From TrEMBL:
This is ATP-binding cassette domain-containing protein. One of its GO terms (biological process) is quaternary ammonium group transport. InterPro entries: AAA+_ATPase (IPR003593), ABC_SmlMolc_Importer (IPR050093), ABC_transporter-like_ATP-bd (IPR003439), ABC_transporter-like_CS (IPR017871), Mo/tungstate-bd_C_term_dom (IPR008995), P-loop_NTPase (IPR027417), Transp-assoc_OB_typ2 (IPR013611). It comes from Pannonibacter tanglangensis. PROSITE patterns: ABC_TRANSPORTER_1 (PS00211), ABC_TRANSPORTER_2 (PS50893).
Length: 352
């Protein structure tokens, strides 16, 4: 078990800061996902922790010990890359045993460690297979086994399943979670998939342009995204522009009251927390598109001013494009200048 501490971690390439003063504490046995769009600095942070990239500033500590200047092979970290870089001319056993041989462990000990780790990743009996005889998923399991066999204190995974199909990816991430919890190994997992992060992580770090936007548990991140960016990155968030005057939204269709100063704001609410029903009178919105996802129906709706929002519609109603509807958002948040306002808005009925 180990604790990882990043303080003021910074990296510049050619004068451009791609990682900007990142502070993060990962506790014993925790699995933290680094989530962000392409180019947000996720891999660079992971590579710095693994020692494959030298920081331009800041420090990396593992269990309190400064490892910032320690070369990768002497760090207590194990890294798994997207392209697993297995040696195709060696069999599975030799691939996994390689690092142990470099450490001059006795043969019997190497054998028992490799067999144990093959068992752990669900590949018992595969030791004599050639790498090219394995499926993509099996190869990635070998790559994980090759890291784990060295018993790192910290496991670093850089989009390890990105090249695999959806089903396999889901299965492997469940396996990784099981293994990680069984070993209690502190883990950092890089992904640009929000589903993957939500499914795997104890906590998620959302990165944008090399800086942390928010660090939180999946449920908290989903319920109260600290910024507009996070709101739009984790699931779908409807964002409807409005103006507040004397504590009331000027949008007639969502009459909201909130203790905010006058000025513009965005009303934010999730499609799954939005009530929709066929309009009795003129309604607030018009159905643009109906999409049946099997588990639920998603309605794309156009508000009077042309703002398009999404809502989940009841399967028992025959929705059709052009239909006029009434919309009742619930669990509403407010953003101003891209940042969550702490004020909880009340709906018109509650405010009246
Ligand atoms: N060796 C390098 N030299 C110059 N620029 C680099 C180097 N490595 C990364 N960068 C730049 O740093 C930024 C962050 O890259 P990084 O790979 O960390 O992002 P990422 O969030 O992991 O993206 P992706 O999801 O696409 O892998 C990018 O703009 C990238 O072009």
């Amino acid at each position: 078990m180990a604790r990882l501490t990043l303080s003021g971690l910074t990296k510049s390439f050619g004068g451009l800061d791609v990682v900007k003063a990142v502070d993060l504490e990962v506790t014993d046995g925790e699995l933290v996902c680094l989530l962000g769009p392409s180019g947000s600095g996720k891999s660079t942070i992971l590579r710095m922790i693994g020692g494959f990239e030298g920081p331009s500033g800041g420090a990396i500590r593992i269990d309190g010990e400064d490892v910032t200047a320690v070369p990768p092979e002497r760090r207590p970290t194990g890294m798994v890359f997207q392209s697993h870089a297995l040696w195709s001319h060696m069999d599975v056993f030799a691939n996994i045993a390689f690092g142990l041989k470099l450490r001059h462990l006795p043969r019997a000990e190497i054998r028992s460690k490799v067999e144990a780790v093959l068992e752990l990743v669900g590949l018992a009996g595969y030791g004599s297979r050639r790498v090219w005889q394995l499926s993509g998923g099996q190869q990635q399991r070998v790559a994980i086994a090759r890291s784990l066999v060295l018993e790192p204190k910290i496991l670093l995974l850089d989009e390890p399943f990105a090249s695999l199909d959806q089903h396999l990816r889901e299965r492997l991430r469940e396996e990784v979670r099981d293994i990680q919890q069984r070993l209690g190994i502190t883990t950092l997992f890089v992904t640009h998939g929000q589903d993957e992060a939500l499914a795997l992580a104890d906590r998620i770090v959302v990165l944008k342009d090399g800086a942390i936007e928010q660090t939180d548990r999946p449920s908290a991140l989903y319920r109260r995204p600290a910024t507009r960016f996070v709101a739009g990155f984790i699931g779908h968030m409807n964002l409807v522009p409005t103006e507040f005057r004397a504590g009331r939204s000027t949008r007639p269709e969502f009459a909201l009251a909130a203790e905010v100063s006058d000025g513009p704001a965005e009303i934010a609410f999730r499609p799954e927390a939005t009530g929709v029903r066929p309009a009795q009178g003129a309604g607030h919105a018009v159905v643009y598109r109906v999409t049946d996802f099997g588990t639920h129906l998603t309605l794309d709706l156009d508000l009077e001013d042309g703002t398009r929002i999404k809502a989940h519609g009841a399967g028992s109603i025959a929705w059709s494009p052009g239909q006029r509807v009434e919309v009742t958002p619930a669990e509403v948040l407010l953003y101003r200048d891209g940042v969550l306002l702490s004020t909880e808005p009340r709906t018109a009925a509650a405010a009246a």
